[in-house]
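Q: Could you fold this chain for me?
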Amino acid sequence: MPDAAVPEMSGRSRPLVAIPGRFSAASALRFRAVVAAERLAAAVFAAGGEPVIVLPERDASNGERLGWADAVLLPGGGDLAPASYGETQSHDAVYGVDTAQDAFDLAVAIWALGQAIPLFAVCRGLQVVNVALKGTLVQHMDVPHRSRLESVQIVAGSQLRSVLGADEAKVSCFHHQRVATLGRGLVATAYSTDGTVEAVELPGARGYFSAVQWHPEDTYDVDPAQQALFDAFVAAAKH
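A: Sure. Below is the predicted structure, expressed as structure tokens.
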């Protein structure tokens, strides 16, 4: 007889969305915490998903740990180690590097793409996917896009154009790095006015994939176009 305290998976109405956690030294729990941005989780929940924060285990970088997940969201965070994309020196502005976090995120990206698990990548998440597919990054932009709204142009005919329903969008940015060379198979689907790649897609991908350099969770509750990104992602997870 099944344990009454454990709900049957067939009865789940919300797909499980795995979000790799970020380590935080600031915590009321007395020790370092594993966290995710509240607004990111809230946007997933508003779209009908169940956000589940995952420990980026330091001695395990195998994405197959997430085999239970219906979808994966790669969130923002600190910078990837420049060595992960072939740089031998690090710019003074590089911050928040955690090589264990990098290993886990990169493995999760490769696993999700390989298994056709719906994958949505935000800010650092886009950079993770780019590096996982052998692309490179600019370590520090001359004019960082930090704490400001950017106008981005959406490429006609792209999946992003279909989801947002517009050729242009105002988006909330917080990044000082950007794509230098695109990873294998990736195409740019949005640009800011200074030419920064602000979104990428993977034509021919077996599963749903979307990645944006901006933070749609910042304005999801006041901008329906930003919530639409989460809606499309969670809809893919349901199917």
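A (continued): Residues 15 and 30 are 32 Å apart (CA to CA).
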